[in-house]
Description:
The chain is an alpha/beta fold. The chain contains 8 helices and 7 strands.
Amino acid sequence: MGALDGKVAFISGGARGQGRSHAVRLAKDGADIVTFDICEQIDSVPYPLGTEDELAQTVREVEALGRRIVAAKADVRDEAAVTKVLDEGLAAFGRVDIVIANAGIMPVLGPTSTVVQAWHDCIDVMLTGVVYTIEAAIPTLVEQNHGGAVVITSSAAGLKGTTRSLRSKTYGMLGYTAAKHGVVGLMRAYANALGSYNIRVNSLHPTGADTPMVNNESFLGAAPEVPELFEAMTNILPVQLIQAEDVSNAIAWLVSDEARYITGAVIPVDAGATAR
Length: 276
């Protein structure tokens, strides 16, 4: 038996990277999956975003584990679209137990990051989108009266400042940092609001992970131009990038009964980056 047998997980940003990794890991533990991704480009983002083909690959990997999955193209910035995806999942599976607010973008360096729209896109995807994802699930989580677990993906950048000079204070970097700090407040507010229903809410704070959002030329290739930014986010352990699975392992534990009394917590998975 798996630790999550009979559970259903609702995951934003599931086409690839951490989102796919979380879907696959929770499926291995017995959960059925409801997920979505924008599968389109956002103008301020300088690297390619996930595609419908990549979302289909997530479906294949979950189904290969013998679990069921509902996956749809939807923009986390669109409240109605997010709710529609969950409704499709509820129609298929009849319940939701776990919410992983994972969708993210990183338009933090390069020409597009200097445009004010990069600020708005970061806030809309990684702050407002988190609210839409959680709010979609709250009525069912409460009505079921079986408790639940919510995990918000923040960042090491949600626990410390990410700039050391005016050169790297782009609208995108500021928006990313503000959103990742902001979800800590959201997490605590939701933990207080939902605790009496035995619904736990925590935030996870990874350092840079080896996913397309980080491991791309627009970000890592900019290291020689803004070394102070990368110095600010240096890990203590001798690793430049962690793996998506490292974050998924923490999520799998947080949403399991082994963490049943953990709520309102800030959990770094950061190779020591925030200890400096």
